[in-house]
Write a structure and sequence with these properties.
Elements (H helix, E strand, L loop, with lengths): L1 H17 L13 E3 L10 E6 L6 E5 L5 E2 L5 E3 L6 E8 L5 E8 L1
Antiparallel strand pairs: 1-2, 2-5, 3-4, 3-6, 6-7
């Protein structure tokens, strides 16, 4: 009897630990990588990649008057300078978060 009870408790623990933990109220966390943060080539196409997970809404502000809602856009800065690229993500519950990286 003790072995059966022990087995049931053990199976319940294993089952609980294997359950997928999707939390729809988890906060949005903005994160991205870029192929380079500096370039002296005015024709360089910067490649931006949003870190997983993909969010319902992604909004990129390239700080040069241009924007994108593509989760992983490419962008050319037509003038030398320093640009504060901002990614804002919004999850399915409407929570938003932003991150900024400087591109030179």
């Amino acid at each position: 009897m003790k072995n059966i009870l022990f087995s049931i408790v053990l199976l319940a623990i294993i089952f609980q630990s294997c359950k997928k933990k999707d939390d729809p109220t988890a906060a949005a966390v903005a994160c991205f990588t870029v192929d380079a943060t500096e370039s002296t080539d005015t024709a360089h196409t910067f490649l931006f990649d949003q870190c997983p997970p993909a969010y319902d809404l992604s909004y990129w502000d390239f700080d040069d008057g241009l924007y994108s809602s593509n989760p992983n856009p490419s962008h050319v800065f037509h003038h030398y300078g320093s640009y504060n690229v901002k990614l804002t993500v919004t999850n399915s519950t409407g929570q938003s978060n932003s991150v900024i990286k400087t591109i030179v």
